[in-house]
Amino acid sequence: MNTFTDSFSVAAGLVAHLDPRFLAIVDLSLRVSLAATVIAAAIGLPLGAAIAVGRFPGRQALTIVLNALMGLPPVVVGLVVYLLLSRAGPLGSFGVLFTPTAMVIAQTILIVPIIAALSRQIVSDAWAEYHEQLQSLGASTMRAALTLLWDTRYSLITVLLAGFGRAIAEVGAVMIVGGNIDGVTRVMTTTIALETSKGDLPLALALGVVLVTIVLTLNAGAHATREWARARFG
Amino acid sequence: MQVRTPRGNGRGRALDEPVAPTGLPIVCATVGVRRGTTQLLADISTTFAARTRTVIVGANGAGKSTLLRVLHGLVIPSSGSVMWGGRAQHPKRQAMVFQRPVLLRRSAAANIRYALDLAGIHGAEADARIREALAEVGLLPLADRPARVLSGGEQQRVALARAWALAPEVLFLDEPTASLDPAATRAVEHIIRDIHARGTAIVMASHNLAQARRLADDILFLHDGRLAERTSSSTFFSRPASALARAFLDDE
Questions:
Q1: In Å, how far is A229's CA from the nearest CA of chain B?
Q2: In this structure, is residue A8 part of a structural domain?
Q3: Which of B225, B201, B226 is closest to B35 using CA atoms?
């Protein structure tokens, strides 16, 4: 069996020759998952901080639900978004099904719980340390939440990465709402699934190698940033 | 009763003397604090006047920290009442320094700026206060250093500078030197004297009797959540009135 060695040379070839179709697939994957991460961060970080700092009824229940939703199956998210966006669905008139926009929506729904739940934990730990001092200085709850988000920013990078990692690695949701249309909604994971089923294992594995390399590089970068920040800012 | 140290107030502009409406005196009437089944404080009736230095002493668990938090409005009493300058509403012109300094992940100067911003002080006024406060605690050269990588003693001085910049009527300190070495402790005590000399009332919890003797005008002795004795510092250390205080002084 030399599928593995084959695939590495195929991967090297794809990267070396900057194959335009290959680049388009990688580019779309990155853009969809980055967009989903940015939107999910805009929703999930304030939500996590609000649950950590706020005192309102149902807070405990919300925490449990968010933690549970971290394990949301992508195919279920895909199916629900599909139903919402399909012609007959409530949001069908926007006509975004089988476009990258639909993929961004599905991935955002998938990772908002991850970002919210993990940031809630981080902000909640910081709140335990800071709350008397912030209260002493007269910070409102809203101001305290923003202060804590900013103060834990280097830890929150890891949270965003966890969300991005989940988004770019999932296949079920983007397959359903994107449709894996060549040149339009085909991303790395859906290509891998397709090429595997067609029997082109080296190409599938080559894309897998690229995917893992991207995720590894991002994580290494985030880790380095955190370590640097810890040494620099304490 | 009032002891003014000779230095302080000499440098820079005259800092805002407390303006009316004032949050002093603080009057506690039969204050009690209960957590679950534990009575942390019971039946505390006492007064804290402007410009005095009161040190709260007592064994661990006597209720020193809880009383400070009640006076600062961080803990709401379960019974009794606290009035600040005749008002039931907790005033803004107070500051508190905790045993472990809580500083934000930003520079020393930015930590003070944050506190001033919350107090509604911005711009050139804030700049001047930050410089003055950091100079006061001897940390002006470290103004732009990230606060959290400073030594423990330096961090506590930043916390004191933050309190200084706010020019509070009263400063609460909860065992501010408990985790510091002797040199850092001396520096902190020196700053506390300066803050007092500027007209700020000091209310400090300490289990260090030597420190209480050095800093206090008044001693408030708590035992088991109750006010066992309150008297001038000299009287407390030479002829304590209560048997509990005598036993406490003998133990230490």
A1: 10
A2: no
A3: B225
Q: Which residue has the tokens 């009736």?
A: B45
For the cut 60, the answer to whether the pLDDT of residue B127 exceeds it is yes
Question: For the stretch A53-80, what's the b/e string if a residue is b when 16 or more beta carbons lie within 10 angstroms of its beta carbon?
Answer: beeeeeeeebbeebbebbebebeebbbb
Our CA angle for A24, A29, A30, nearest 5°, is 100
Does residue B8 carry a pLDDT above 50? no
CA atoms within 13 A on the CB side of B240: 17
**Residue-number span of the structural domain to which A202 is assigned:** 16-233
Select the residue of A137, A153, A233 nearest B148 (Cβ to Cβ): A233
Which pLDDT value is given to residue A204? 85
Q: How many domains is chain A built from?
A: 1
A234–B149 CB contact, under 8 Å: yes
The contact set of B with A (CB < 8 A) is 69, 72, 74, 92, 94-96, 98, 102, 104-106, 114-115, 118-119, 146-149
Flag whether A63 is in a domain. Answer: yes
CATH number of the domain to which A80 belongs: 1.10.3720.10
Return all residues near A206 (Cβ < 8 A) that are at least 6 apart.
A7, A8, A10, A11, A14
pTM of the model: 0.85
- Collect all residues with Cβ–Cβ distance below 8 Å to A60 and sequence separation of at least 6: none
- How is A61-94 classified by DSSP, letter by letter? HHHHHHHHHTT--HHHHHHHHHHHHSTTSTTGGG
Whether the pLDDT of residue B104 is over 70: the answer is yes
B41 vs B208: CA distance, rounded Å: 21
Would you say residue A111 lies in a domain? yes
Residue A143 lies in a domain: yes
Query: What confidence tens digit (pLDDT) does each residue in A141-163 have?
Result: 999 999 999 999 999 999 999 99
Inter-CA distances, B51 with B6, B18, B98, B101, B202, Å: 14, 10, 20, 24, 7
* Chain B interface includes A55 (CB < 8 A): no
